[in-house]
Write a structure and sequence with these properties.
Elements (H helix, E strand, L loop, with lengths): L14 H11 L4 E3 L6 H6 L6 H5 L4 H9 L13 H11 L7 H14 L10 H12 L6 H7 L2 E5 L9 H8 L5 E3 L13 H15 L6 H17 L4 E6 L9 H12 L6 H22 L2 E6 L1 E2 L4 H7 L7 E2 L5 H13 L5 E6 L5 H8 L11 E3 L9 H14 L19 H19 L7 H20 L5
Helix pairs in contact: 1-18, 1-19, 10-11, 11-13, 12-13, 16-17, 17-18
Length: 470
């Protein structure tokens, strides 16, 4: 790799760690069960015109770092030309020391482009020109970028209104890497903006050819889309929430609330929570009956900078870690589903590190056979997917659950150049296991430990999600 710090043994601090990583973790394919990759780019086998288009566009991690470094917005999301944006990123990179972006940046440059030079203002012109020239060639098309990293499966994130035409094209092309949609019905819960919600319901009405004039018709239309996703290979739902919604409600209350929604009469806070609680119960029922896994992304406080949200919209780097009460509402949510015997496999992604241990303890209360680790604490997510966060996360799972059943890492990314995040995770995992072995905390059995690492890296998610990838 580079001639400085990113050697082949990066993060591997002992011979045991090197053996566990290189022999067991590194050869495993990638099962990327949660991403935001555009299926349209995979369907079209897109070629990116330059490194900025492939690497910086849509990357709110990099934009956030650039803003902290004092870079003007026109170089992040604005109208500056692509090279000027890259140049400003190159100016920022030397200041990412001890930030995961320093590691990710150089891993990505090396793994995709064989680039061994550290990125800085002096090296920027050469790196940009060389990588951009490579991106224009066939080996660097979207599909070949996935092939180069041994990706076996990718799950995209899709609104229920998505036609799924791009997934159908990928399937028709017999692309050997499986690309499945994930059902993300957050728009159906967006009761804070009744104009937008009603426009969304009208679109659902047109797509399903159903008259959505009452709550039951709304659920029927959503179930029809749920089934279409299932036919396209989807086996996952995903829900972005500040906290789980599990308020008590009656069916009559929800019918009345839905009538208010359709007539654009504002809901009070308690009505909003009841409606979201009823909807999440319905989604869980659909998932359970279809044999899907539900994913809950809990904890963010979104769009904290209202001025920038007004100018740029969501997902542009202005979210933060929330401090909502998590445990009691999630316990009610899981218990309600369990009591109705409709609790599907559930992956809970947590953003606030203070909640990791309580959530891991809660999850164990809903473990039921024959499925191992039916309820999972998902991968370290967003602000937590850095070295310390991953190590703390792995330790929490080991202390409160069974680490050998953990489902590993996912990119959670919009970039085709982000798959070395799996390598980053696997190196950290191998090093952590090796430290315990050499401290006498684990048996000196490399076959046992190696098999555990292989399972976490690939076989556990493959067996847990049950989506075909070979």
């Amino acid at each position: 790799m580079t001639d400085t710090f990113l050697t082949e043994n990066f993060l591997l601090q002992s011979e045991t760690a090197r053996t566990l990583y290189h022999q067991y973790a590194a050869p495993m394919p990638i099962y990327d069960f949660h991403s935001h990759l555009p299926a349209a780019d995979i369907a079209a086998d897109r070629k990116f015109p330059n490194l900025t288009q492939a690497w910086l566009n849509g990357d709110h991690y990099k934009w956030r770092a650039m803003r902290i470094h004092g870079i003007e917005e026109k170089y992040c999301t604005g109208a500056a030309d692509d090279y000027a944006k890259f140049e400003k990123w190159a100016q920022t990179v030397p200041f990412t020391l001890r930030n995961p972006l320093c590691h990710w940046t150089h891993l990505e440059l090396y793994r995709y482009f064989g680039e061994t030079t550290l990125l800085n203002p002096d090296s920027a012109p050469k790196i940009y020109d060389r990588c951009s020239d490579l991106l224009a060639t066939e080996p660097f098309s979207a599909r070949n970028l996935l092939r180069s990293q041994k990706v076996a499966l990718v799950c995209t994130t899709n609104d229920p209104l998505d036609s799924l035409e791009h997934h159908q094209k990928i399937k028709d092309d017999n692309f050997e890497i499986k690309v499945y949609p994930t059902w993300r019905p957050d728009a159906a819960l967006a009761v804070e903006n009744l104009d937008a919600l009603n426009q969304w319901i009208d679109s659902l009405e047109a797509l399903t050819d159903k008259n959505i004039n009452k709550y039951s018709a709304f659920i029927d239309a959503l179930a029809a889309r749920h089934n279409q996703f299932h036919l396209m290979g989807c086996r996952l739902s995903d829900h972005g929430l500040p906290f789980a919604c599990a308020e008590d409600y009656t069916e009559t209350e929800i019918e009345n609330i839905f009538a208010k929604i359709r007539t654009k009469k504002s809901l009070i806070s308690s009505e909003q929570l009841k409606f979201k609680s009823a909807m999440m119960n319905q989604f869980a029922r659909m998932n359970y009956q279809a044999g899907w896994t539900q994913q809950l992304h809990l904890g963010p406080i979104r769009n904290t900078n209202t001025r920038m949200f007004g100018a740029l919209g969501p997902d542009t780097g202005f979210d933060a870690i929330g401090d909502y009460p998590q445990i009691a509402p999630l316990a009610r949510f899981l218990d309600r589903l369990d009591s109705q015997q409709i609790l599907p496999q559930t992956v809970i992604y947590n953003l606030n590190p203070n909640d990791n241990a309580p959530l891991a303890a809660l999850i164990g209360s809903f473990a039921t056979g024959p499925q191992p680790a039916k309820i999972q604490l998902g991968p370290a997510w967003w602000f937590l997917d850095q070295k310390n966060g991953i190590e703390n996360h792995l330790n929490t799972i080991a202390n409160f659950s069974l680490l050998p059943h953990f489902i590993g890492m996912t990119t959670d990314s919009r970039s085709f150049l982000s798959f070395p995040r799996h390598e980053y995770f696997r190196r950290i995992l191998a090093n952590l296991i090796a430290q315990d072995l050499e401290s006498g905390l684990l048996p000196n059995d490399l076959n046992l430990l190696g098999a555990t690492i292989k399972n976490i890296a690939f076989y556990n998610p493959k067996n847990y999600f049950k989506m075909i990838c070979d």
